Amino acid sequence: MNENPAAAPAAPVVVRLFLVDDHPLVRDGLRARLGAMPGLEIVGEAGSAAEALALIGPAQPHLVLMDVGMKDMNGIELAALLLQQQPQHQKPAPHIVMLSMYDNPEYVQKALQVGARGYVLKDAPAAEIVAAIEAVSAGGTFLSPAVSKKLFRNQTPRPLLTPRESEILSALGRGESSKQIARDLGLSVRTVEAHRQSIKRRLGIEGQAELIKYAVEHAREFGGQG
Fold this sequence. Notes:
Elements: E1 15-20, H1 24-34, E2 40-46, H2 49-59, E3 63-67, H3 75-84, E4 95-100, H4 105-114, E5 118-121, H5 126-137, E6 142-143, H6 145-153, H7 163-173, H8 178-185, H9 189-203, H10 208-218
């Protein structure tokens, strides 16, 4: 019998998750909700910003689920510190999903501006938190639907997109396919598709045709003309 070790199936990718919240009961609830999720390993937790700064580096998580309203430092400031002070030996930096009681558009905008990839409300169903983890782990972004609606209702005509989402929307407006975009930006097709889904959620768009129509009509606003 001829066995080929190279043909063995690849080990499943496990997302390493770190929890940051200053309420032990909230961390207990998150651990209970997420601990049994396939493909997810909770590698640590912290009850304060100081603990998080000390423990996240050694734990080397892929993703940090972080409370916004903590006593010693708010989660948005902590996220900015973590992303700025990423140790050179640990690359890439962990993705950060904010977990908050507040749907204030200003908080959401600040979280995205410092580099957070998701913003989920604490009273959201468990499925929404899981969806956020899956979307961000795949390279996309995620906002709770309730947050998206309030954010865009209070925004200027141009919706807030991340720089990468703006690049992809511009490329769609130029008629490029996901494969072309992936090649040009050095991304995987899966990551480009995750960004496209995120853009649709942010814009309140349902179908691909509507997304392309929006991209063509608004390409200039997002840098589509160079």
